Amino acid sequence: MTPSTPVEDLAAQWKSARQLYPIYLELGREFAIEVKPFAELESGADVPAKETVEQAKHWMEEMDQHIQVHQLRQFLQTSASVNQEGLLALVQHFLTHTLKSDAMRDKIDFLLVQYFSQLAPTGVSDAEVDLAYVERSLQPVLGEVDLKPPVWLNSLDRVLETARRCRSLDELLHSGVLEQGRKAKGLAGDLFYLPVALVAFTRFGYLMRRAFFRLMLGDLNTILEGLTELEDRGVLTIDCRRAQFSEKEPIVRLRMICQSWKVMFQAEYSSGQPLRMLVDLRASVNQALGRGEINEGQTKSKPKSAPDAKTAVRSAGAVQAASAKAKAVASAAAAGATMSLGASAVAAAAGKPMDESAASSSEPPEFEISNAPGWDPDAESQTDNKKS
Asked: If phi over 0 gives left and psi between -120 and 50 gives alpha, with beta otherwise, what is residue 363?
């Protein structure tokens, strides 16, 4: 005869289920996931019988199977409905899973970084974010952690140092840094779930986000400065086919798009194709300024898989509307959160449909563009900032 579950355990499980239930319902609505309501959780009843608690647990596990990590990213980084307490409940829920799949690891990794991002002050410097700093912030999740990291975790610091040396988003995305970070998580296996490893990977993810965001803003500022210089020269349009715009894209329109993107970068996203657009737009501006080499034949035709440039920007009014929408998204995002970029947001700023491949259910990694369809980085000329 098996012993019965202690009443306090049932109460804790039920409290967690009640906290997560409205979050999961909203996730289901946003991503068209079929959700069957759970009457007892709907009613907010006191702790029910053990069988009902087990059923609620099974309901949550079924939802976990349907929710993809990129959906969690998009939802939690743009929704104002999940407060810090709800995020903590999500982290604790996923840490109790016995399943140690790659998808579960990626969800836990993201949730810990997201949780820490909301706690970290905006003005904290990278140097201040050491293991001890992160460990103190994660104590509500992990408890006290013995900070004696194994030698294999030292590779994360080497990856971060390489990222800090990058001078442009293009350089970061083609340096192999992101692949090294993902490889480190994959090689960790079950050791990823060691408390000290969770602290180290949370620190790594947070600092990589910051490095990534700084480079994105740097690229945008460089583009805007380049557009100003071109206008001073009397140039009105530039060839932006490599960035999936038109052969004679008006500079005034590009400026409006970049300003909209700057607003959207205040909310967190992850993406594929939109980052390609940003990198290639900087390259297009550099080329117009005479600071880059154009690939032979580029002036003759645009890439075969590039969408019709007419769909890229429909009108200045559409861009302004997208900018207004972006401001609403930004105000809903957590104030102290670090940033990354998302497919739907940037595509909306450009007035073009989102590439379905950037939002598929195949767990696209954060900050990935090298596998975006229709783009061969070796076939395009590199910017003047990229190392040979």
From this structure: left
Q: What is the dihedral of CA 280, 284, 285, 290, to 10 degrees?
A: 130
Residues 326 and 319: their CA atoms lie apart, in Å, by 10
> Which residues is 237 bridged to in the sheet?
250
Of 337, 356, 276, 372, the C-alpha closest to 73 is 337
Proportion of the chain in helix, strand, coil states, percent, rounded to 5:
65, 0, 35
State how far the Cα of 121 lies from the Cα of 68, in Å rounded to an integer: 29
User: Alpha-carbon distance 372 to 47, whole Å?
Assistant: 48
Distance CA 110, CA 115 (A): 9
Assessment of whether the complete model's pTM goes beyond 0.85: no
User: Domain segments of the chain: what residues?
Assistant: 1-67, 210-379
pLDDT at 365: 52
Q: Which of 301, 127, 300, 144 is nearest to 210 (CA)?
A: 127
Helices 195-232/102-119 angle, 10° precision = 70
Running along the chain, 388 residues long, what does each successive block of 10 average in pLDDT? 54 88 92 88 79 90 90 85 89 89 93 93 92 96 93 93 92 87 91 96 94 90 95 95 92 91 57 70 93 46 36 37 38 32 40 39 45 34 38
Please work out, in degrees rounded to the nearest 5, the angle formed at the alpha carbon of residue 87 by the alpha carbons of 82 and 92: 150
- Residue 104 tokens, joined: 């579960």
User: ∠ CA(264), CA(269), CA(272), 5° rounding?
Assistant: 105
Largest CA distance in the chain: 86
On the CB side of 171, CA atoms within 13 Å amount to 18
283, amino acid identity: A
* pLDDT computed for residue 238 by the predictor: 95
Contact between 345 and 267 under an 8 Å Cβ cutoff? The reply is yes
Q: Please give the pLDDT value at position 39.
A: 85
Helix, strand, or coil here: 136?
Answer: helix
What pLDDT score does 83 carry? 87
Q: How far apart are CA 287 and CA 239, in angstroms?
A: 9
